Amino acid sequence: MIPVAFDYQRAVTVDEAIAALSSGDGKILAGGHSLLPAMKLRLNQPAKLVDISKIDALKGIKEEDGEIVIGAGTTHGTIASDDLIKSKLPFFATAAALIGDVQVRNHGTIGGSLAHADPAADWGALVLAADAAIITKGSSGSRRVAAVDFFQGLFTTALEDGEIITEVRIPVPAEGTKTSYQKFSQPASRFAIVGCAIMKKADGKINIAFTGVGEVPFRDSAAESAASIEAAVTAAAEGITVMSDHFASEEYRKHLAKVYLRKALEAVA
Amino acid sequence: MSTTHGLIGKSVKRVEDRRFITGHGKYTDDIILPGQTYASFVRSPYAHAKILSVDTNAAASMPGVVAIFTGADVENVNGVPCGWQVNFKNGHHMKEPKHPLLVADKAKHVGDAIAIVIAESQAEAVDAAEAIVVEYEELPAIVDASKAVEDGAPQVHDSAPNNICFDWALGNPIEEVDAAIAASAHVTTLDFVNQRLVPNAIEPRAYNASYDQYNDKYTLYTSTQNPHLIRLLMCAFVLGIPEHRVRVVGPDVGGGFGSKIFHYTEEALLTWCTHKLRRPVKWTSTRSESFLLDAHGRDHITKADMGFDASGNITALRVKTYANLGAYLSTFASCVPSYLHGTLLQGLYTTPKINIDLVAVFTNTTAVDAYRGAGRPEATYLLERLLDLAAHEMNMDPAELRFKNFIPPFDGVTQPGYQTQVALQYDSGNYHGVLEKGLAMLGYEDFRKAQKEAANNGKLLGVGFSTYIEACGIAPSAVVGSLGARAGLYEVGHVRVQPSGKISVYTGAHSHGQGHETTFAQVVADKLGLPMEDVEIVHGDSEAVAFGMGTYGSRSLAVGGSAIIKSLEKVIEKGKKIAAHKFEANPEDVDFVEGRFVVKGTHHSAPFSDIALRAYVPHHYPAGLEPGLDFSSFYDPANFTYPFGCHIAVVEVDKETGKVQLTRFVAVDDVGNIINPMIVEGQIHGGVVQGVGQALFEGAEYDENGQLTNGSYMDYCMPRADDFPMIETASQVTPCPHNPLGVKGAGEAGCIGSTPAVVNAVIDALWSGGHKVKDIRMPLTSERVWRAMQQ
Predict the structure, then answer these.
(1) Do the Cβ atoms of B718 and A188 come within 8 Å?
(2) Which residue of B786, B787, B789, B790 is the best one to mutate when testing the A interface, meaning the one whose CB has the most A CBs within 10 A?
(3) In chain B, what residues touch A2 (CB-CB under 8 Å)?
(4) B252 three-state secondary structure
(5) What is d(CA B270, CA B328) in angstroms, rounded to the nearest whole number?
(6) Is the peptide bond between B173 and the residue preceding it cis, with omega within 30 degrees of 0?
(7) B431-458: average pLDDT
(8) What is the CA radius of gyration of chain A?
(9) The B491-497 sheet, strands edge to edge
(10) Do domains B31-139+202-255+260-293 and B297-475+639-790 have the same CATH topology?
(11) Per-residue pLDDT tens digits for B710-729
(12) What is the 8-class DSSP label of residue B675?
């Protein structure tokens, strides 16, 4: 199918991209794996695409000021194979390697995925469990948004008009931190029916986050405060609106959330 | 490569892959003609709706728009026909409501075409189509075939009361079957759905029609499995154009699986449009349109009862099926659930009494027609599911139960063919052989031990069997004619020996992935003792090939190959006359051996190329013999061919999630003689994957409003390489006794045998864990399997 006609502008700096977005009905093109299919089906009809895929400043992974910094334009494939990620945030590497297929991983970016906020995308659970901050930039400057404040609804985030995500910053986990990402994939799209991300800190405190289960990825505080694996599993994914589709009903999805939480907890035990 | 003989039976690499793998295939969409225009359609978003008005004014003045046509413009043009007439039980003709090129009054499924826009570019056509305003009055829709026949259900066509296209029965009288079931020691009953599948050829359908007004000549490029049949149907039934004015070309075709057999409305409409516009018109289906419009497969709702005596011998089979035909009758829709399904219900077994009662039904859904296997997978699924379930219920071994009921081996030469209760005569078979081989490859006893051990450790392993038969090499024309086919099903093979002795072969078969350019060349090169590169295979062009019925029903080699053999025999016979003249011998004294004409008992011989040259430069030539070495033959088979085999699946089921992992797949297939083992193995692999796709992953889902809710690859799950273990294949060879190559066909076998094997394996795994489940609806999604374990 053919999209509605649109203008195209390639930005080479973040400021150029922000300036381009400030006029008219523009959309950011990063990896394009969610946006372009929607445009081809004419479900999305932006007047202008601002291509940020050639902005070098948005790419790469580094350690800085006690944080691991992932540029928003970094591809899933890069994250999956990055040595710093593998040693400090191994569950990010695990999750990245489970996204889509090779082609998707080589084009799709972490920033694009977070901004799109598909309720079944993997990254939501990861940034929540890792206490990450999402760094955004717009014409009025930069903002630092905690992951727990970022996801606001189905395909809805704290991003304001004209803002783009520049970085994902994660506190460097202390020695002795254990992580796990356990995923039950939707067989056709390979998005998460259930994705459970866990970070168990050296002091024993556990962050538990789910994606694919509700309309937004969420931290499961009831499960986090449970005293045992059994109690956590019982408490998990209760009291929220659980999604339903022809691959997984509400009941089955909730069951899977518990099964996959147990797998994750056992992995970090 | 310069092997000269003994090519039959060799795994020669596919000659067509050079262009395919390097991206140089030439498909319909690659063809751009001078003055090319592009089409886009306005399609109904509703499954059932009255069309109140169509406003094309705004669209007509948009940039690049060349023409817009609506249903009103083609009201006097015929619809596309059905190629097979089935009669009601009472003898009346089936209902054949018009399938118009564009609908004017009422849309009958989502995607029904309301208008066509033709523009200078594809983008302009799409933009203008979006600007056409259609006013609809939505009507209640019906999607379920068994509910569609109830009084008060929405009516798809006024001319088909209760939405019934036809009802039909086959086999022994129902009273006899009822009595045999009633008298059985055990009856296994299964209510099940053989779900609807989307064919998903990688190349979407594409057409490019042009008209040369100065020569009054049409050309239609079409992504089809049978160009001549498209020409015949379109010229004779739809547009009323004499066929010598129409050239139909099927260039490289990227997969069909049956869905490109049929004559679609777009082919005729584009041809009609090009005549109006005097410009070429091209349309390539979007993937979304492919989901909605390419004829779907399967969609049966069935209740089946199989009776057994106390020692496990089958006493009778009774089948009641509702077949969903969709909104319109596609080209072969009527014969698939009837003659390609009911006639296969004997399976490999000696069942003495069989009856099938079928109701074929219209619904507000995409048309359903032949899809890889076409009726035979449905029959096999029914039988093989019943057999494994009966074994569980009677606490018998499923392999033993089959051995007990198999038809004994027969070669069809010294022993007669096997006459079934459902109208067919099997040609040759050794059914015990394939199951024995399959069990040995599996290591059956060891598996059962491992299964028990796994069950004790809380793991669910299962094995499932499927011993199938299919009717291929379609088909003896007189037989299918008596059953309602409106065409013959012979094939044409034309061998043109060039003066240099090189060979051009023109076949009516049409490859859409099968590798005919390799296999057919192997046969010809082998028979003439020539290197393969001296042989070219030409197909797919109605102007190059005299006639043809195309490729489907695993028929190309069995029927098309046999036609080529007939022509080769004529070439050699004439060559002997020319050689005899050269050596002043009698033609009866000339042999053709390894590419040379040899005078028996002498040292006189001439290579094939020398005799070919003499045929075209007939200076010293037999008196009264025509020059040239060029023969065309029609081959009409004496019978169907009956490939068969044994498929065994091993699965592991996750107790917590219900997720099924296929861990082994053993396929022993008997497709008769084999020309190219690598190509046969490839066909089996592809077929198995497609059949497992039905078992575990695929299925079109409609909601009650007739909306296809999974019409994209985000939701419609295709099987992928990482879902599979290495498929373990083996062959048994029982030659076909009635065609010259002894071949039976391999294109559909994998898809027919594999589906029930996998479902049976999952059911077996569940029984091993104490879940005595009769059925899980396909596809066996994790949730469905999990739910089955909760009961």
Answers:
(1) yes
(2) B786
(3) 122-123, 126
(4) strand
(5) 20
(6) no
(7) 97
(8) 18
(9) B535-539, B503-507, B491-497, B630-635
(10) no
(11) 999 999 999 999 999 999 99
(12) S
Name which CATH class applies to A178-268: alpha beta
> Which CATH architecture best describes the domain B297-475+639-790?
2-Layer Sandwich (3.30)
Q: Which two tokens stand for residue A36?
A: 């372009």
* CA B107 to the chain's CA centroid: 28
pTM above 0.90, yes or no: yes
Q: pLDDT tens, B530-576?
A: 999 999 999 999 999 999 999 999 999 999 999 999 999 999 999 99
Architecture of domain A7-51: 2-Layer Sandwich (3.30)
CATH of B31-139+202-255+260-293, picked from 3.90.1170.50, 3.10.129.10, 3.30.1300.10, 3.40.190.10, is 3.90.1170.50
Q: What ranges do the domains of chain A cover? A: 7-51, 58-171, 178-268
Task: Judge: domain A58-171, CATH 3.30.465.10.
Answer: yes
Contact residues, chain B, for A1 at CB < 8 Å: 126, 286, 288
Residue B475, preceding peptide bond in cis (omega within 30° of 0): yes
> Could you tell me the residue ranges of all domains in chain B?
17-24+490-635, 31-139+202-255+260-293, 297-475+639-790
What is the spatial distance between Cα A77 and Cα A102, in angstroms, rounded to a whole number?
Answer: 8
Residue B468 sits at φ, ψ, to 5 deg, of -115, 165
Mapped onto helix, strand or coil, the DSSP state of residue A183 is strand
Note whether A2 contacts B709, CB cutoff 8 Å.
no
What residue type is assigned to position B378 of the chain? E
Mutate to test the interface with B, among A34, A186, A246 (most CBs of B within 10 A): A246
**A259 touches B: beta carbon within 8 Å:** yes
Whole-angstrom Cα distance, residue A231 to residue A219?
16
Nearest to B282, CA basis, from B71, B653, B28, B7 = B28
Interface with chain B: mutation pick from A40, A247, A250, highest number of B CBs within 10 Å? A247
Contact at CB, A252 and B713, closer than 8 angstroms: no
CATH 3.30.365.10 given to domain B17-24+490-635: yes
